[in-house]
Amino acid sequence: MTPFSWQRAVIKIGSALISPNGNGCSAEYLLSIAKFITASRQQGKEVIVVSSGSIAAGRRSIKAGQQASIAEKQAMASIGQTQMMANWARFFDFPCAQILLTLDDLHDRRRYINVKNTLRELLINHALPIVNENDTVAVDEIKVGDNDNLAAHTALVAQADTLIICTDVDGLFDADPRKNLSAKLISSVAMITPDITALAGGAGSAVGTGGMITKLQAAQKCCESGVQTLLVNGKKSEVFDALAQGLCPGTLFSAAYSGRSARHHWLSHTVKSKGALTLDLGAFVAITEKGASLLAVGITEVSGNFKSNEAVDVIYQGNIIAKGISLYSHMELQSIKGLNSSRIMSVLGFSYGEEAIHRDHMVLIKTNTL
Ligand SMILES: Nc1ncnc2c1ncn2[C@@H]1O[C@H](COP(=O)(O)OP(=O)(O)O)[C@@H](O)[C@H]1O
Ligand SMILES: N[C@@H](CCC(=O)OP(=O)(O)O)C(=O)O
């Protein structure tokens, strides 16, 4: 088993552990997880839970066929969420705090900061934050879609050092262990390469979402941002004994070194671009070699439909080289692209500032293909 250490962890628990029969809530697997959480907190460590299972928990309370409609699932989630929270709360003598998120909450910088502040306040006050997607209101466009990726976003916003994903298999295998009985466990992964991604199959149970693919996506998001990720079998109580001793009994994805800021994480991994700005050579050199802000004069093309303060891709010769928050809307940039900053005021009748994207609100993505 690979040793590891941690101070603040997000622990993600999949539906198969909350609702092993795919229906209602069960305490069967939660006791050992709850004991681990309590013991870790007693040692001064901090824990945030991301719990799936609201849809499965509420399934039997809503009449639906085998293929439930979206509205039926949302109704299940609405009933199941309170049951799932109550199921957790009975294990603890400290408060459990419900946090329901959608992708919109993470994309909007102000809401993102609010989530971050709330989590911090809850941890300071020794409450246990329990996060889930807000399934009742989330439609596809505003959904994270699976709780593995939601847990990765949560780990980044909470500035955790570790993500522990508890699922119903021992870790990442070299093939789906449900389909291939001779599949072998991979105990450590230094980097998630395309060869590793190729090993991942879909969900293993009727209640699971995403399977191994979304777990690898989550691990990649985290590791790239300096958050180590563990994938373990939450059905086995001995797994939590090992974790308590600082040993990973499943797969440990090591964190790459990251000196990046929280804003950098948010820009690179969370916020979605609403458009794109194409640069001329001068702007490309200024951004990639001189650490400059992007000025309107270096923009040759504006595409998409974005408002002021929304994220855009920055493109040079067909490659995305950076991502940033545009001070101006797409309409405004259409009018001022190619112009010297001193002309912004006369063309628009107002000015938000000299830069189209300020350097502090921009992350470089890749320049090595050019
Ligand atoms: N290479 C692999 N290694 C391990 N499990 C895999 C692999 N490929 C696919 N799986 C499947 O992923 C499932 C876990 O994902 P999922 O059903 O979504 O669980 P959860 O509800 O915990 O998110 C396992 O039960 C397993 O069948
Ligand atoms: N938000 C959904 C769970 C979505 C999900 O990703 O489930 P899982 O693959 O079991 O972690 C629910 O509470 O039912």
Describe the fold and architecture.
The chain has 370 residues and is an alpha/beta fold. The protein folds into two domains: 2-261, Acetylglutamate kinase-like (Carbamate kinase, 3-Layer(aba) Sandwich), CATH 3.40.1160; 273-364, Archaeosine Trna-guanine Transglycosylase, Chain: A, domain 4, CATH 2.30.130.10. 35% of the residues lie in helices and 21% in strands. The protein contains 14 helices and 17 strands. It has helices spanning 15-18, 30-42, 54-58, 70-89, 103-107, 109-124, 147-157, 194-197, 211-224, 237-244, 262-270, 281-290, 330-336, 344-348; strands at residues 2-3, 8-13, 46-51, 96-101, 128-133, 162-167, 188-189, 228-233, 247-248, 251-253, 275-279, 294-295, 299-304, 311-316, 319-325, 355-357, 362-364. Strands 4-5-3-2-6-8-10-7 form an eight-stranded mixed beta sheet, with helices on both faces. Strands 13-11-14-15-17 form a five-stranded mixed beta sheet, with helices on both faces. It has a two-stranded antiparallel ribbon with strand order 1-9. The longest helix has 20 residues, at 70-89. The protein starts with a strand and ends in a 6-residue tail after the last strand. The structure holds adenosine-5'-diphosphate (ADP) and the ligand N[C@@H](CCC(=O)OP(=O)(O)O)C(=O)O. Adenosine-5'-diphosphate (ADP) is lined by residues 14-16, 167-169, 172-173, 175-178, 199-201, 203-205, 208-212. The site of adenosine-5'-diphosphate (ADP) has 23 residues, from helix 1 and helix 9.
